[in-house]
Write a structure and sequence with these properties.
hydrolase, Protein-Tyrosine Phosphatase, Chain A, 5-stranded mixed β-sheet, single chain, Phosphatidylinositol Transfer Protein Sec14p, Tyr_Pase_cat, 18 strands, 693 residues, alpha/beta
Length: 693
């Protein structure tokens, strides 16, 4: 710590360390003077109270199974990147640090209490390295804006509150619950009864516009009524960098250091090997929060020490132009697939974030689906107009038209000629890259790859940009990759900086191959596709889909990125699902993940508002792919303006990806899915439909 202590405070530090060593001769010990000061500061150098606080802190961690905190490992890595919990780079008027929990980003069914608490403890540990934070304390904002009951986790809320007030070395000054919905009031009343009286007095609920009365506007982010901009990803990167120069490490998960040097594990992100290196003592985190993490250079959670000559330790294959090497065991010596520390320490070029709300009608602020980052929006073909239907008008339309009428409506769309030419798809050199000879890309909207080795044909892939609701190029609709196009597919994902891949077909259906196995399926496996090495680092199974967390390493640039792969498995082999519930849940999960992943890279993004495109594919890239995209567009518009137009949406989609929505029952499914969504949202009562309709 940079601040000198008085003689009495120094004596208190020694007494604290002696008392803590007596607690458990065989358990974790605290040798760090810095840690002792943190606990003593939190209790105004009252040794007995500081020891009690440490015991509560340690007991909480052990009770939740948090003996180690490794930010580079799943599921903690995803939890940190979600942006659900963060520490803002500014302070309140009295100098307290500001922690923010965004409720709508929390999905209790997709994470665990342990992972969330790990993320909270990890970030708060870094924040209280600042003397100012230790003295001025912490303000906690629980933002419930746009959250639903599904986002609320009562038990987790209690754990976080009790941690902050009675089991963490930070002075909790106040808890602000922002924009709490009506259903939360009963839960809040119970919470008030169960927490300590002092904490009860410090918990208050308020509206967003009231928050600047308690915290200066210049310290609050724009979505909470302030004027500050911040990068959560840059904050996490600051934490990771602090770890690399840390002498103290995580007190409950490390071994005792020798000669003032802390041994730390450096794990190469794709290789799974561990090498222990010694790092000199250094200050872990600057004393002032403000201005310390405004930028992010993209090396988040990936830049580790270099390890040369280690093998993958897993089954490795190469595809495309890469050399083929099958089998297990040691492979040839190779450089660790990550950025070097030297590269990651270079300050990034400062980006112009663009004007807030640019490209939106009437000067309104950017809505939630745009996610507030990137440059000025380019117009999309999907914008509100006077042709849309309200939900009740849509019900009347479906009742009036019935299934036969909806079928005729689709037939009119299907018979319309394509809105462009297919010259590039029909070139002899490109025809072999098309999975189906009659599913081609319109020239004006095709995704162009970078030309390789002056070969003009190397820029082709059967993939099309499609606009989303008020978002240009929100999707890339593409076919299921062929073995010969695996390398091209990953080149497209890399060049477009895609964060998520949505796959709506299984590899084999009804005995027919619908898509190639273009990603490593099992955890720990890695495949090489041209210049890209892809490793599966985490798999999570859900009832209707499978989520694989992939790490993609570019052997040319040495850069490593994370890509989420969603495989939807509940689409029946014949027809369409009887209920849209599973698809609606799937869409909600994908959108939430896309938003969180984009927020993590926001400071490093200079493209259109809303971030990189979502890569969506089935087999041909027009049927289920078109259905998923049409639903997303229609529901986004419904949420925004309370109206939608399925027919015009599909027509507009087809001007960018020809033949989108392949069958009439997929078209009809869009109507049924919208109505089911409206019922879920309470916009409609339950409706009974007969088969004759």
């Amino acid at each position: 710590m940079a601040e000198a202590l008085t003689i009495q405070e120094e004596l208190a530090v020694q007494e604290f360390l002696e008392e803590v060593r007596k607690l458990d001769q065989h358990g974790p010990v605290v040798e760090s003077r810095n840690t002792a000061v943190k606990f003593l500061m939190a209790r105004k150098f009252d040794v007995s109270r500081a020891v009690e606080l440490f015991q509560a802190y340690r007991s909480t961690r052990l009770r939740e199974g948090i003996r180690e905190i490794r930010p580079e490992e799943e599921p903690l890595q995803s939890e940190l990147l979600s942006g659900k919990f963060t520490v803002l780079p500014y302070r309140d008027a009295r100098g307290a640090a500001i922690a923010l929990f965004t409720a709508r980003l929390h999905r209790p069914d997709y994470t665990t209490h342990k992972a969330v608490l790990q993320a909270v403890i990890y970030q708060l540990d870094k924040a209280i390295e600042s003397i100012q934070t230790q003295r001025a304390g912490l303000v906690f904002i629980y933002d419930m804006t746009n959250s639903t009951y599904e986002n609320f986790d009562y038990e987790l809320s209690m754990k976080i509150l009790n941690l902050l007030k009675g089991a963490f070395p930070a002075r909790l000054k106040c808890v602000f619950i922002v924009s709490s919905p009506l259903w939360f009031r009963a839960s809040l009343a119970v919470l008030r009864l169960l927490v300590r009286e002092k904490l009860r007095e410090r918990v208050c609920t308020l509206k967003t516009h009231e928050l600047p009365r308690h915290i200066p506007k210049e310290s609050l982010p724009e979505h909470l009524g302030g004027s500050a901009r911040y990068s959560h990803a840059a904050w996490i990167q600051a934490c990771i960098r602090a770890d690399r120069t840390s002498a103290a490490g995580d007190e409950l998960s490390r071994d005792k250091p020798a000669d003032g040097v802390a041994p730390r594990d450096h794990r190469c992100p794709l290789q799974g090997r561990t090498c222990t290196v010694a790092e000199p003592n250094a200050d872990r985190f600057p004393q002032r929060l403000q201005g310390n993490y405004e930028e992010w250079d993209g090396s988040l959670l990936t830049a580790k020490s270099t390890v040369v000559g280690t093998d993958m330790g897993t089954k490795e294959r190469r595809h495309g132009n890469g050399h083929v090497a099958n089998g297990h065991g040691p492979g040839p010596a190779r450089r660790s697939p990550h950025r070097s520390d030297a590269a990651s320490s270079v300050p990034p070029r400062r980006k112009d974030p663009g004007e807030e709300g640019a490209g939106l009608e009437g000067g309104q602020t950017r809505p939630a689906y745009a996610w507030g980052c990137g440059r000025t929006s380019v117009p999309s073909v999907h914008v509100p107009d006077n042709e849309g239907m309200t939900v009740r008008e849509l019900v009347e339309h479906v009742k009036k038209m019935k299934k036969k009428g909806i079928f005729r409506e689709y037939e009119e769309i299907r018979k319309e000629p394509p809105a462009g030419t297919f010259n590039h798809s029909r070139k002899p050199s490109n025809q072999m890259k098309n999975r189906y000879s009659d599913v081609l890309c319109l020239d004006h909207s095709r995704v162009k790859l970078s030309v390789m080795d002056s070969d003009e044909t190397s820029d082709y892939i059967n993939a099309s940009f499609m606009d989303g609701y008020k978002r240009k190029n929100a999707y890339i609709a593409t076919q299921g990759p062929l073995p010969k196009t695996f390398a091209d597919f990953w080149r497209m994902v890399w060049e477009q900086r895609a964060l998520i891949i949505v796959m709506t077909t299984r590899v084999v259906e009804r005995g027919r191959v619908k898509c190639g196995q273009y990603w490593p399926q099992e955890v720990g496996d890695s495949d090489t596709y041209g210049r890209f090495l892809v490793k599966n680092v985490h798999v999570r199974m859900f009832q209707d889909f499978r989520l694989s967390q992939l790490q993609v390493y570019d052997s040319v640039s040495g850069e490593l990125r994370s890509v989420a792969h969603y495989l939807y498995v509940s689409w029946p082999d014949f027809g369409v699902p009887k209920s849209a519930g599973a698809m609606l849940d799937f869409r909600a999960q994908v959108k939430q993940h896309q938003e969180a992943a984009f927020r993590a890279m926001c400071a490093d993004w200079t493209g259109p508002a809303g971030g990189p495109p979502l890569v969506v594919h089935c087999s041909a890239g027009i049927g289920r792919t078109g259905t998923f995209c049409a639903l997303d567009i229609c529901l986004s518009r419904l949420d925004d303006v309370g109206a939608l137009d399925v027919q015009r949406t599909v027509r507009r989609m087809r001007t960018q990806r020809a033949f989108s929505i392949q069958t009439w029952d997929q078209y009809y499914f869009c109507f049924m899915a919208v109505l089911e969504y409206a019922q879920r949202r309470g916009l409609l009562p339950a409706i009974q439909w007969s088969d004759s309709e």
